[in-house]
């Protein structure tokens, strides 16, 4: 099989004989991983001796070999045959020692730069053109960034609204921490503490329902299986005792996400709250889901309620039959 002038084979196939790596770094790593000479199963053949490559190879060059024919003509090197251990090779390579140069794009594009640098402006007064006042504390923002993520912010800054020309806007009915979390999500695409709660929720689902293997698409029905109400009840007590404050914080962020129309954050909050649906939190979370129009959370709560009632009816019927 022939190869191109950049080192591709022209006759034969050397891939099964350990053809050269695409770069010298991976070649050095593979060399370091080989067993030392003299160890069991290693041939004393001279072409088995390890060498550190000194030539940068683009493409797949010839593999290790000895006894081959090599001829240099101009800038080209022609290599034919040889042997590698007990294998005799029947391949042919033409190596170009001065291949044509090709322009490549290595620098990040504008979208990548924006994504990478946007977090720098989170609550930063640099180029800030709006300041939010929440519980007496200031949070710096940028109208263009906020408008691109939230239609609510966009409407707030457009003509006809009193906030259009305001440099300082007071945000009521929310805590400083919750609004700061909303801003952090807008500028960075994530909220660390929400992500921690989300991971905890997924781990909990895997523990209660190992058959899911972490599949979130199956978690809605699995997390509230009526056959496992006891496990859910046990978790409900733990969630109220250990994570009660976190539930309130997540609910507050959910309410802000709905208020400012940040739907992706809203759905993240729903996934975190999902395994926290239990007998003690059902009424509260059902009210929250209705208030914030969180349709997924609302469906989860109603499904839990239906199955809880069915499970209670089954237990009563079983108790009556035993009597």
What does this protein look like?
The protein has 323 residues and is α+β, with helices and mostly antiparallel strands. The chain has 3 domains: 6-96, no CATH class; 110-188, Potassium Channel Kv1.1, Chain A, CATH 3.30.710; 192-322, no CATH class. The protein has 12 helices and 9 strands. The protein has a 4-stranded antiparallel beta sheet with strand order 1-6-3-2, with no helix packed on it. The chain has a 3-stranded mixed beta sheet with strand order 8-7-9. The model is unreliable at 1-40 and 216-237 (pLDDT under 50). Residues 128-195 form the BTB domain. This is BTB domain-containing protein. Residues 1-25, 202-231 are annotated as: Disordered. It holds the Pfam family Kelch_1. Residues 209-231 have a biased composition (Polar residues).
Q: Determine the strand fraction and express it as a percent band.
A: 5-15%
- Based on helices, strands and strand pairing, what is the structural class? alpha+beta
How many strands, which pairing sense, and closed or not: the largest β-sheet?
A: 4 strands, antiparallel
Overall strand count: 9
How are the strands of the biggest sheet laid out side by side? 1-6-3-2
Residue windows where pLDDT falls under 50 for at least 5 positions: 1-40, 216-237
Which whole number gives the mean pLDDT? 77
Q: Mind telling me the C-alpha Rg?
A: 32 Å
* Termini gap: 84 Å
Number of separate structural domains = 3
């Amino acid at each position: 099989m022939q190869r191109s002038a950049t080192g591709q084979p022209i006759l034969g196939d050397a891939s099964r004989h350990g053809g050269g790596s695409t770069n010298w770094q991976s070649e050095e790593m593979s060399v370091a991983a080989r067993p030392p000479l003299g160890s069991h199963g290693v041939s004393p053949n001279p072409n088995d001796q390890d060498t550190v490559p000194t030539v940068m190879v683009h493409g797949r060059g010839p593999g290790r070999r000895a006894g081959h024919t090599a001829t240099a003509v101009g800038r080209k090197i022609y290599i034919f045959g040889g042997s590698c251990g007990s294998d005799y090779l029947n391949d042919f390579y033409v190596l170009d020692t001065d291949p044509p140069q090709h322009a490549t794009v290595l620098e990040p594009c504008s979208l990548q730069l924006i994504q990478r640098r946007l977090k720098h402006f989170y609550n930063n007064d640099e180029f800030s053109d709006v300041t939010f006042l929440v519980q007496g504390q200031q949070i710096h923002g940028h109208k263009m960034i906020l408008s691109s993520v939230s239609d609510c912010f966009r409407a707030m800054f457009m003509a006809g609204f009193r906030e259009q020309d305001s440099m300082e806007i007071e945000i009521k009915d929310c805590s400083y921490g919750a609004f700061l979390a909303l801003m952090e999500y807008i500028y960075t695409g994530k909220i660390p503490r929400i992500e921690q709660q989300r991971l905890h929720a997924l781990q909990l689902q895997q523990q209660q329902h190992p058959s899911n293997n972490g599949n979130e698409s199956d978690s809605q029905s699995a997390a509230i299986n009526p056959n496992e109400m006891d496990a859910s009840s046990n978790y409900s007590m733990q969630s109220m005792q250990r994570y009660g404050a976190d539930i309130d914080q997540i609910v507050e962020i959910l309410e802000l996400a709905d208020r400012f129309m940040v739907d992706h954050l809203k759905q993240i909050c729903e996934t975190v709250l999902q395994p926290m649906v239990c007998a003690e939190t059902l009424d509260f979370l059902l009210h929250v889901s209705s208030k914030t129009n969180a349709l997924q959370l609302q469906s989860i709560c109603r499904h839990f309620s239906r199955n809880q009632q069915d499970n209670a009816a089954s237990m009563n019927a079983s108790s009556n039959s035993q009597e």
